[in-house]
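Reopening this ticket.

The earlier resolution said the output was attached, but the attachment link was broken on my side. Pasting everything inline this time so it's all in one place.
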Amino acid sequence: MNHGIVKLWKQMDGWGFIEGDDGEDYFFNISSIRKGQRVRENLKVKFDTEETQKGTQAVNVSLS
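Inline output:
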C-alpha cells in the first residue's frame, strides 16, 4: 500500500493525480476511488498501483 496527497482533482471530469510519498505522480480516475470515499485536493490518501498501457496508475484509492 502506498501513501500520498491528492495533488490535483478535477471533480467534473472525474480524474486527478496523487503525489506519492516516493515523489512520483500517479494518475487516477473516479472508478479508482473506493466506494463511499470522497477525495479533494490536499487530502492524504492510501492506494495501490497498477501497470497500464499509459503507465503506472493509482487504484483502490481511499482516505488514510
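Reporter confirms the inline version is readable. The chain has a mean pLDDT of 97. The chain is about 0% helix and 60% strand.
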